């Protein structure tokens, strides 16, 4: 077999059976190998930012990496923003990036670039394979990295791809299991939780399960510790039957206020909270200066086992967790806005749905409103780089074909990777996209206000860079142009009806929800 | 004034008066400065790949740099593919990339990344400004770099932007003039051109003017040297009245054959030709092994003066250059395909039009067919990274508001930066976009054939990554969704009528030209 075939066989042998692709000439032998090796599902995306976001959504829902196929440095550049998000969220991905043949690089052909330099910024691990006989082993190394939640990037020169590999493919790669948290750390946490200081447990990481929430709630009941998630945990199980748990606010001033009394902040899979951006006269760190930050577990530690140990040590096993009873709001009428849309969404979320949230300001009312909706998983943007939602919905739907995906998307952020709609149509994915079309970069208007310039009101030039009307974006036309059925809602009644209809049917649909800005 | 204002004033004072923007929080003080400093035109793009391509098109037509405003590492990532093209073409751009405040970087907030690493791959020059009092000087340094055809990237931490700059703005920056080619090199060229060896002058660089073509033709007449452009010169003046000049073919085997007899290859603003990609059993270099490659001038040398010197030394001043007489083909009828579309385009190209070519395979017949059309400038993709055409048309139209821009675009490449259509509508740019909708990555089918796998015929998995029908892309709907009027042509007659109508009117229009693949 040639190098590309041995690479592909090694991926498949390790359960990596989806490849999000946008190939070019240097990947053509990999493309040819797709029909020589069985078991790889190829999902074509029309832009690389779609496929990297899809790999993210897939990994979050499948609990294992997808692979991506990218064309040279520019292809990696196009994928970069969503790889950034994946890296920040410790989301496993195996990127395969074709490069020129090793002997061709010296000629600095037009598409030559320093792929390694670009990759280093968005991958935990980058390696350039040197020969066809090594590529399967190199792939195994990439898989081992991805297995512990890394973005692993393997650069595949064309001659490594087409060359003969006498060693063949590699078999199953041993993956390091989740680490047991040390007794010392558990002791430290117990001491703090049983002290008379004000404690908060903050949880984050790749996946916050319903069971973890219930265990945290028991701990809270037994110790009076507050329990909270980080601002944007990658995935959290929510809705009726799930534990009542706080969420750290996004806005720095609000977050600082939220935890201003905490004396011990115990982190489980979460990072110490910091402001997303710096502002004059606002601290960069969120916790009070005299708060002790105690890192109990990282995202690759065995958090289930840790929480059970804490419950056993504290004797919280018989506590009753606080859970949300099912509470479905009545359908609203009248004007369509972020609040009424949130109510409709809370009304209709079907059992076991997957919510992908990149609705930015318009999404703010939806999270609290859906606390007690039917049980669902909620996916967040972990790295702050927009253009993630539509692609992540693609990946989530491919990983979970029997679950409805609802993608909540801002108009501005939608336009970064709008090409994802085509892949939704091509793969007939069961995704309902709701675009909150407020014709603004609304969050930037808020950020402008915080500069204090011109009393917080943008002048004409600034305003023109923050408003995205003129012309108004018509997402119905764009969706239809990419093969996705679509409707426009301008009243709550229209939105109700369209949500109901879309959720009764399988397959992709888009609702262009015309709303005023939230602020 | 604050740092951002001094930056902006320094740009404007140096004639950099267009900024293609897609800002975020870290750039908000720059945005505020847009209303404090006069003379900067801001052009909002909905995706950063649009704005970097627009900056490219602008610089090529304006002969001076535009600035860009990008948000952090992910914003740069989104812009990367077209910055790659600009770097390869020595196209001047001044990128301003906002970063976190210097003191905030240590907290590794979600949007923190190594901007310098990413930038190094696509910029000739990258610098991170360290304080508000230095930012104007740093901007001047970036302008000096851009002035000699460089992609210059200035990273602007938020506190440098909002901090007070007691030094104020910088004034006019001295730009190194085009260099005079040494007498030794001219002597060397004359010796070769007057030898009995087979010579070819290959010209490239940022702009091949009509006058340069005529001078080359005189030299050819006087010396029997062949004259040729590189495959993709950034900009070339063409059509009736311009000199007859060869173009190096794109396909390596054809290019090798094209110059197989050449003994002296004299390069003026061009690089030694190499194959775009490596293939088993095809050489990486295009010139014959025994051909001497003589680099006479680079893109920053004074090529006009050089050509005049050569004419004087060789005594070619009274030679009659070979020029194309005006030759406008009759309008075709019947099926619409790449050939008939090329004929229609050649028929209609208006005087002084700007053609932006990213039509890939469907564009192949257009270049030869338009040799003797009305005079026009032709812009090429210099770095091979697709998704350049629509954005470059935006920039070209902004630089040349009195000229019609015709953007020839493949369906696959259009989808990388389709958001450019919105900016065309918002700025009411005089652009006719022709999408060649063949529902294939047709060039990749050709590349697959060259792998020899499966007798050159893709299996079902490979085929699914090369075909972009199912669902068919409807560019009329997409364009209308972004505010651009659009029509679909499926016959030559329809295409004729739509071309005529679009060229009679000002403002953006898109023709979705449904064509079979060329091969």
Per the CATH scheme, the topology name of the largest domain in chain A is Rossmann fold
| Global outline of chain A | globular
Contiguous low-pLDDT stretches of chain A (5 residues minimum) are none
- Average predicted confidence as pLDDT of chain A: 97
- CATH top level of the largest domain in chain A is Alpha Beta
Q: Helical amount among residues of chain A, as a percent range?
A: 25-40%
Level-2 CATH architecture of the largest domain in chain A:
3-Layer(aba) Sandwich
Describe the structure.
The structure is a homodimer of 519-residue chains. Chain A has 3 domains: 3-162, Thiamin diphosphate (ThDP)-binding fold, Pyr/PP domains (Rossmann fold, 3-Layer(aba) Sandwich), CATH 3.40.50; 183-314, TPP-binding domain (Rossmann fold); 338-514, Thiamin diphosphate (ThDP)-binding fold, Pyr/PP domains (Rossmann fold), CATH 3.40.50.970. In chain A, 38% of the residues lie in helices and 18% in strands. Chain A has 21 helices and 18 strands. Chain A has helices spanning 3-13, 28-33, 48-62, 72-88, 115-122, 135-147, 158-162, 183-194, 210-223, 252-258, 303-314, 338-348, 360-363, 366-369, 389-399, 411-414, 420-426, 442-451, 460-466, 475-481, 492-504; strands at 18-21, 41-44, 66-71, 93-99, 125-128, 151-157, 199-203, 226-229, 235-238, 246-247, 264-268, 292-297, 353-358, 376-379, 405-410, 431-437, 485-489, 509-514. The longest helix of chain A has 17 residues, at 72-88. The first copy, chain A, is globular, with a radius of gyration of 24 Å. The model of chain A has no long low-confidence stretch (mean pLDDT 97). The interface between A and B is large, with 102 and 102 residues.
């Amino acid at each position: 077999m040639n190098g590309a075939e041995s690479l592909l066989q090694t991926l498949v042998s390790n359960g990596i059976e989806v490849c999000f692709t946008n190939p070019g000439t240097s990947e053509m032998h990999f493309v040819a190998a797709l029909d020589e090796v069985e078991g790889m599902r190829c999902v074509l995306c029309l832009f690389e930012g779609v496929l990297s976001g899809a790999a993210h959504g897939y990994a979050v829902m499948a609990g294992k990496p997808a692979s991506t196929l990218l064309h040279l440095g520019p292809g990696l550049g196009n994928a970069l923003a969503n790889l950034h998000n994946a890296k920040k969220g410790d989301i496993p991905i195996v990127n395969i990036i074709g490069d020129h043949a090793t002997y061709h690089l010296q000629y600095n052909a037009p598409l030559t670039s320093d792929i390694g330099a670009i990759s280093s910024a968005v991958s935990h691990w980058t390696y350039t394979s040197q020969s066809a006989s090594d590529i399967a082993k190199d792939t195994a190394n990439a898989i081992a990295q991805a297995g512990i939640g890394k973005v692993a990037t393997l650069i595949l020169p064309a001659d490594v791809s087409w060359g003969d590999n006498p060693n063949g493919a590699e078999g199953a790669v041993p993956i390091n299991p989740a680490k047991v948290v040390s007794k010392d750390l558990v002791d430290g946490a117990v001491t703090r939780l049983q002290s008379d200081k004000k404690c908060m447990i903050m949880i984050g990481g790749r996946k916050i399960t319903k069971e973890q929430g219930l265990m945290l709630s028991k701990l809270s009941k037994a110790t009076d510790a507050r329990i909270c998630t980080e601002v944007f945990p990658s995935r959290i199980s929510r809705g009726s039957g799930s534990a009542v748990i706080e969420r750290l606010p996004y806005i720095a001033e609000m977050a600082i206020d939220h935890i201003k009394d905490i004396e011990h902040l115990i982190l489980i899979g979460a990072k110490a909270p910091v402001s997303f951006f710096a502002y004059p006269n606002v601290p960069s760190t969120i916790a009070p200066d005299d708060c002790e930050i105690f890192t109990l577990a990282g995202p690759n530690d065995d958090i289930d086992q840790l929480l059970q140990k804490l419950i056993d040590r504290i004797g919280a096993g018989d506590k009753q967790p606080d859970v949300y009873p099912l509470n479905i709001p009545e359908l609203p009428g009248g004007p369509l806005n972020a609040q009424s849309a949130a109510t409709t969404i809370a009304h209709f979320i079907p059992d076991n749905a997957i919510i992908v949230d990149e609705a930015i300001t318009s999404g703010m009312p939806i999270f609290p409103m859906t606390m007690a909706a039917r049980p669902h998983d909620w996916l967040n943007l972990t790295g702050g780089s927009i253009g993630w939602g539509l692609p992540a919905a693609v990946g989530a739907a491919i990983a979970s074909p029997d679950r409805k995906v609802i993608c909540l998307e801002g108009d501005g952020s939608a336009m970064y990777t709008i090409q994802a709609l085509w892949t939704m149509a091509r793969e007939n994915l069961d995704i309902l996209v709701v675009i909150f079309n407020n014709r603004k970069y609304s969050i930037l208007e808020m950020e402008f206000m915080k500069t204090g310039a011109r009393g917080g009101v943008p002048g004409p030039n600034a305003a023109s860079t923050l408003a995205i009307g003129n012309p108004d974006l018509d997402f119905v036309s764009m969706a239809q142009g990419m093969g996705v059925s679509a409707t426009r809602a301008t009243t709550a009644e229209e939105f109700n009806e369209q949500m109901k209809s879309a959720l009764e049917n399988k397959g992709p649909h888009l609702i262009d929800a015309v709303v005023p800005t939230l602020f």
